[in-house]
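A reminder from the course coordinator: this example appears on the midterm review sheet, so study it carefully.

Given structure:
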């Protein structure tokens, strides 16, 4: 069964956690998590669903018949009915209450971790107020009850996370227009590397077109940077600059280009040699 990719901002998004795991473990499609966790703000190391795919990842999944791209723009821009608004409000309240409960649980956990210090501080305060009997009678249970009863959840500062999937009434329309030029050299290189069983991600952060990993990027560092050239000819200074870049980031440098004969992709790995060794 094909999975559904939601068309947003010109590319595919994944909102279902099972689809995300299947893409990563079975089809080696990484994408980037761009959502927020329920009780934490956004950070690159703790992001959550949805998963944003690159345009060439989206196009590859469609071309390989693994997914279909759908648009929910019409359903999402249509004025909601009263029943829809009430259902949304109930769901929204449920999420806020779940966040409140999670924060309260975390507060009690922190209290339990430092309860001895808290009791000492409260007893000293009671003694200074001239209440030695209350200080002597104070227990850990009293502290927990006080923290639980005085906990307040500020709705204005609550985090609103994106749900893992769109609501059922969001109808979708099949999109057949390509989101990426399948004839471009970059897409063909990505498709070819993926066909060879490689884990491939965007290489912009390393000054390259792609990064190639020996396994799941959660477990391995990238082993190669891939730089796309229109032909196999490259100027010496540019060659030196790119190879030295790969040395700095401790990766091998691969040049990908279109062969002069035929419609095939060629690859050339270049290593930097230190003549003094």
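Designed residues:
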């Amino acid at each position: 069964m094909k999975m559904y990719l939601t068309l947003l901002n010109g590319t595919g998004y994944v909102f279902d956690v099972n689809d995300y795991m299947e893409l990563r473990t079975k089809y080696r499609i990484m994408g980037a998590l761009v959502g927020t966790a329920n009780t934490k703000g956004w950070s690159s190391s703790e992001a959550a669903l949805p998963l944003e795919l690159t345009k060439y990842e989206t196009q590859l999944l469609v071309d390989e018949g693994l997914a279909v791209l759908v648009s929910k723009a019409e359903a999402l821009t249509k004025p909601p009915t009263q029943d829809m608004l009430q259902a949304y409000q109930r769901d929204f309240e449920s999420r806020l209450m779940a966040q409140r409960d999670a924060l309260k649980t975390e507060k009690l956990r922190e209290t339990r971790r430092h309860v001895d210090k808290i009791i000492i501080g409260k007893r000293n305060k009671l003694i200074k107020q001239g209440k030695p009997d209350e200080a002597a009678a104070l227990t850990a249970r009293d502290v927990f009850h006080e923290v639980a009863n005085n906990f307040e959840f500020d709705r204005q500062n609550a985090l609103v996370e994106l749900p893992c999937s769109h609501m059922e009434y969001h109808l979708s329309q099949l999109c057949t227009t390509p989101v990426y030029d399948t004839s471009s050299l970059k897409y063909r290189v990505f498709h070819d590397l993926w066909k060879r069983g490689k884990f491939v991600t965007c290489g912009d952060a390393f000054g390259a077109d792609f990064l190639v990993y020996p396994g799941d990027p959660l477990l391995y560092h990238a082993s190669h940077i891939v730089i796309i050239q229109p032909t196999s000819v490259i100027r010496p200074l540019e060659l030196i600059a790119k190879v030295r870049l790969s040395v700095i980031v401790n990766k091998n440098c691969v040049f990908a280009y279109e062969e002069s004969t035929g419609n095939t992709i060629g690859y050339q790995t270049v290593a930097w040699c230190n003549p003094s060794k």
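Residues 102 and 166 are 23 Å apart (CA to CA). The chain has a mean pLDDT of 88.
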